[in-house]
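Q: What would this complex look like in 3D?
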Amino acid sequence: MAASPHTLSSRLLTGCAWYLERRAVQEAPHTFMHLFRSINRRWITFQHFTFLKRMYVTQLNRSLNQQVKRKPEPVALPFLEKTSLGQAKAEICEMRPLPPPSLPLSRKPNEKELLELESASIIEGSLDAGKETKDEKHWKEMKLHLDDLPGILARLSKIKLTALVVSTTSAGFALAPGPFDWPCFLLTSLGTGLASCAANSINQFFEVPFDSNMNRTKNRPLVRGQISPLLAVSFATCCAVPGVALLTWGVNPLTGALGVFNIFLYTCCYTPLKRISIANTWVGAVVGAVPPVMGWTAATGSLDAGAFLLGGILYSWQFPHFNALSWGLREDYSRGGYCMMSVTHPALCRRVALRHCLALIGLSTAAPVLDVTTWTFPVISLPINLYITYLGFRFYTDADRKSSRKLFFCSLWHLPLLLLLMLTCKRPPGARGAGAEPQS
Amino acid sequence: ALPCVAAAGGRWMVGFRASRRALLPPLCRAFARPGCPLGPERGAERREAAASRVSGFCPPRKSCRDWIGPPDKHSNLRPIHFYIPESESPLEQKLRQLRQETQEWNQQFWANQNLTFRKEKEEFIHSRLKAKGLELRSGSGQKATLDAEEMADFYKEFLSKNFQKHMYYNRDWYKRNFAITFFMGKVALERVWNKLRPKHKKSST
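A: Here is my prediction, written as structure tokens for the whole assembly.
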């Protein structure tokens, strides 16, 4: 770097410049000038100018082109008039020992100005580390580092949510009647996982400016510029194509079709609908319900009552989960332009959440009727179903942040536990017919 | 204290900044490493225009890439400082201009949106507190606020008021996003093609 020999001394002098600036506005100009003379004045002056310029420019940008005229302080004004631009220029010109760069300049700027500003840029360049404002430190080069890529792609594909989706698919597969086929299970899980990654990536691709404005989502990779939109779309395609192919040819076409349908529903229906109508919540609930259905169809190859029951349970669960979550995000949704029940129809929001908590009890009771589980299941799942219904009722009546949070956190453990209980109560093969003896 | 000092030199600063803007391109070029060859006049003008819009930040001389900044205070969007390469093709230029323009358009929309929201929220709080007969600041000096349930009316009203505006914005945003991504794809293909072509020429001669 051209100016590196000056770095240490310039940093010391920068420190001095800052100190002097503080004193400048407190002391009379002549005292300040005296101080200046005690150090290499020419160097500090230019430092000062560049720093002031930077401060002013940063402030100007922050005011967003609104013409903010700050009242100038009389103390400071004489100081700046004293150390005139011309004087500084001349001093800098004689001081800088740097070789003049050979520039193929077709413009003809004022030579003095050019040298002065060259020096400014040299100083800036060498003192960036010392002088940069807090903001400038946060400017990052948009370069993709390969070792960061797995982490970035994991966040892009919402890997945790994908894992939950795959687990509901696995539950659907495991609850389906018939022998448990490991290769098929693994292919289904992998295919669904890839499809979910693709759908989540496209969702983030569409929502960059909205995500930037919400606290929950402002650290996503596309928002932070860690990858380009092109790469996000390419990644989504590279997940969707093998994922769907795996489901269609590795498992069965029905599962593949459901996978494509779900990707389409999530990216092309739910995501745009979020900003148009509250119907997005119902569409989103269907999106959540499809994966266990896919697991079921992967195992059985057909869409029968059990598949719909499982889908129904996931569908109903989405409402207490999402409605409770959205209760605390009303400000962000309103500002960002999202049409959510919690903002536009708050009473409906709470009513629907409670309604579906009750539906969960009903669906759990229907499970043995449809030969998915034994009669033990509705009995042992009643406590947790009653508890979530109770919290749903509290949310309905209290309608405050505390009750919404309680309902939301309950929903997080309620679903895995419910599915686990279903698995333990799965109807054993051979014992068919409604009203069969409960087997513990 | 410092902003006052800065403001005091306001007139001087404007002149300085203008001249800086005019001379930034040569400076950006001046200390570039051979890896980033100096651009012609065309590149200089564009660089100047780009730099003036995102002024206050100039990437290191040796950088050949775009730089992304911290979230803007008003719009929460992160500004990008676009790098203008020496051998920028028309397609690359088109992409960069589209991205630059979309960035400014987005910035304007969201800054305006957020400021309006904040302003209207304050007004709503004022009017509600007044209706309740409460002062804006309680005895202890704490700023009186409304709880979430009272604010809900405001959120609902604000959302419905801005619904149409969001519809237009959404439509335009989707169009721009697709266009930018499409052009990014085209540029990527063009670059790959250009990399392959000289080899092809060499092999043919």
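A: To summarize the key features: Chain B has one domain: 13-196. Chain B has a mean pLDDT of 76.
Q: Very helpful, thank you.
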